[in-house]
Amino acid sequence: MSNDGYFDEDVARTYDQDHGGTDPMLIERTVDCLVDLSSFGDVLELAIGTGRIAIPLAERGVQIKGIELSAAMVRKLREKETGPPIEVAIGDMTSTQVQGTFSLVYLVFNTIDNLTSQQAQVACFKNAARHLGQGGRFIIETLVPPIQKIPFGEERLAFASSPDHFGIDEFDVASQNYTSNHVWMKDRRHMHQSIPFRYVWPSELDLMAQMAGMDLEYRWSDWDRSPFDRMSTKHISVWKKS
Fold first, then answer.
1. CA angle, residues 199, 171, 194, in degrees to nearest 5
2. Is-above-0.85 flag for pTM?
3. Please, which pLDDT band fits residue 216 given cuts at 50, 70 and 90?
4. What are the CA-CA distances from residue 108 to residues 2, 45, 122, 149 (Å)?
């Protein structure tokens, strides 16, 4: 692991294609929802990454700042920018602070799982709350832990199988930690990557929010605001600062 964590130059170069998703309709739905929930106030993205969501938000006139651990990911963001540079602080989203008070802080694409302890995830909620004004919102997009798909006593679950990519998650249900193992096959070369995560249940996130002075306002199964139910594989959760 480098100073950029697990998201170094090699990962940043292909992140949008391999991990982040480039579906323009999904990005549009995400941005539409965030603009609406921001009430046109200032916005902060935790783990801003390559700017997959932040740049379209800025293009919509939203005043946005970011926090990002990986300088390599931010360099990729700079390559993609077409307007004024977005202010990005390099640092850990559990403790790094930026100037300003925000109407919306958000964290997308399962990134809360990159914090591999419950303590770090709680700290992330508290840091988000520190940046919010009264009535401000914190939004997380993340998966519903896929534990129901794993037979009792098993530890591994395949999540990707294609001509150029295999993926297998290894779970420890006692600690809620898991590791995503990727094998990429490109130009007759194989690259292996393993990244540690910690899955977290929706109810657990609600308790973290309460500890940070926020209450659940909405929970949807996707950015189109479809209802969250027992069949949902991910959720968009919105907490409001009391």
1. 90
2. yes
3. very high
4. 23, 9, 16, 23
Cα 86 from Cα 194, distance rounded (Å): 30
Element (H, E) at 237: strand 234-241
Residue by residue, DSSP assigns 90-114 as ES-TTT---SS-EEEEEE-TTGGGG
Amino acid at 130: R
Q: Which residues contact 153 (CB under 8 A, 6 or more apart)?
A: none
Residue 34's Cβ-side half-sphere holds a number of Cα atoms within 13 Å equal to 31
Task: Please give the Cα distance from 134 to 24 (Å, whole number).
Answer: 33
Q: Which is nearest to 105 in space by CA: 137, 61, 75?
A: 137
- Contacts for 107 with CB less than 8 Å, ≥ 6 apart: 45, 46, 47, 93, 124, 128, 138, 139, 140, 141
Average pLDDT value for residue range 124-139: 98
